[in-house]
Amino acid sequence: MTLQSNPETYVITFHVKTDQVDRFRSLLNPVLDAMRHEPTFVRAALHVDPERPNVFQLHETWTDRNDVLNVQLNRPYRQAWHAGLDDVLAKPRQIGIWTVVRAD
User: Fold this and answer.
1) Which residues have C-beta within 8 Å of that of residue 72, sequence separation ≥ 6?
2) pLDDT confidence of residue 1
3) Average pLDDT in the 7-35 region?
C-alpha cells in the first residue's frame, strides 16, 4: 500500500433531525470505535455546534485516500451507519477533504 505524503482529513457536516440526535450518535459511535483500529487511520473528532445541538461535524484523518474510498467505506461495521443516515439526517451531509499546510 502506498501512503500519501500528507494525511487527509475528511470534514463531514451533519444536520440531524432534532428527534434523531440520540439515534445518530448510537449509529456513529460503533463506527468511531471500530475505525480507530484500522492501519491507515490517524485520528477522529466529533464536534457539535454549541448553538445548534443537532448539527455535528466529524473530522476523520487517514493516510491513504484509496484505502478510505475502496476499503474503509465498505467495512461491515459501517453498514448500519450507512443504512440509517437517510432516516436521521434533515439534509444530505456535506463532505470536504483537507490537507494540513501548518500544524503548531
Assistant:
1) 35, 38, 40, 62, 78
2) 45
3) 97
